[in-house]
Amino acid sequence: xxxxxxxxGMVLLVLAALMLTALVxxxxxxxxxxxxxxxxxxQSERATEYGKQLSRLVQKETVSSRFDPDRTKFxxxxxxxxxxFPLLHSTCEKHVFHGSLLFxxxxxxxxxxxxxMSHHDVVEADGxxxxxxFSGDIDAEGRVWGRGTVDTKASLFCLLTAVEELIAExxxxxxxxxxxxSCTEEWSGEGAPATVQYLKEQGxxxxxxxxxxxxxxxxxxxxxxxxYGMVGVLEKGYGDLKFTAKSSGGHASVPFRNSPLVRLGKFxxxxxxxxxxxxxxxxxxxxxxxxxxxxxxxxxxxxxxxFWLSGPLLKRILPLVSAxxxxxxxxxxxxxxxxxxxxxxxxxxxxxxxxxxxxxxHQDKQESIAVITKLAEKFxxxxxxxxxxxxxxxxxxxxxxxxxxxxxxxxxxxxxxxxPYVMTGSTDARYYTEICDxxxxxxxxxxxxxxxxxxxxxxxxxxxxxxPLGVDFYKKMIxxx
Length: 481
Ligand SMILES: [Zn+2]
What we know:
By secondary structure, the protein is an alpha/beta fold. It folds into 2 domains: about 45-235 and about 390-480, Zn peptidases (Aminopeptidase); about 235-390, Alpha-Beta Plaits, CATH 3.30.70.360. It is about 40% helix and about 20% strand. The protein contains 16 helices and 16 strands. The strands form 4 sheets. Strands 1, 2, 3, 5, 6, 7, 14 and 15 form an 8-stranded mixed sheet that branches. A 4-stranded antiparallel sheet has the order 10-12-8-13. Helix 5 crosses helix 16 (about 465-480) and helix 13 (about 400-410) packs across helix 16 (about 465-480). The longest helix is centred in the first third of the chain and has 22 residues, at about 5-30. The protein is globular and about 75 Å long. It starts with 6 loop residues before the first helix and ends with a helix. Zinc ion binds near residues 123, 151, 186 and 456. Zinc ion binds near residues 123 and 151.
């Protein structure tokens, strides 16, 4: 008997084969990591003592502002640190750059120094909180409350405590260990750049920077089970732009078409309707999903374990279902400020909107600005770049510093998953890329979903039970450096 397969049959066969391969790949993925269960309720003596000390740091209000050059409160904060960490202060070299701190703990000089960092300024705390934002209250569940607990006085406390305890234990590190904490991080001020400038002048090249960034989260992405340490390895570029529409003005009683505000409105609507930026999967995002795939629901596994098949469609769909995922895949633009006429019945001669952009490496600063400028021209708008910087180089997860972080995480948080990811916000670490190829953005502390949401929001708090593991993490990281 002769079997005749026509072209439609061939297509079906190929499709069936593809589906079968995808299905097998998904079925073969067994849940691997992320089995770790934290003990946020750790109420041991050690956790309680740490909680009290963190509370003291939180009670010292350190809100920073671009418009306030006075650094008194930060210097007062340093005095609290000096009391709390006496060995660190007597052993390490201390530098203060207009309120920003740098310590150098001299090591045996066997290899390139490392730098652990955080920041001690915080953003304002508006609204009504369950516990006042600078109370440092500790509740019955052992949560320390207040602005800056998560962002980032807890990690600052942990890294300083790690060094204090290591000195007490008689440790001498193999390499120089720097500790940095700026007081201008929240408004991208001069603290970190001044610190980097100083290090450059000293001829320091760093083997690793470990800054704030991702943390330890349960269900880091909807549909993914388990506990993951999220390590920022790509920081997007940053830009502030202004789009201006001009006209000869006139009385609002005789309206004309396409007046400045209307053109700005049409432009913004067009950007939202037809996003002009190209979504692509970058290496960190692919790696993130690869590492999360084993712990996804079967339906998601089928998709995410088969990028070779689902990728082209996925990069279109993901930005539609999740703004956060979209921001990992492409340049973003968000409109932030606007100004029209000064009178209620006057057409503006000039109106503008501003926008904040975040650039992705595959469509860099230059290309993204060119794309948006061209689109703005269609609506007869002028584009002005107020400020822009390029995205940071991607940190290799196969290189030694990332692997060391994974090793330490496995020891301190057995069973945890570690995932590289794209940071959509910015950190002080970006200034350090000049003197370091391995700037990892990770604070080794567990936070709950509510605590994650509380960053820059209301009711910021952290479990004191998370602190001992944070301290142990930094200690191990130093000992292995
Ligand atoms: Zn912040």
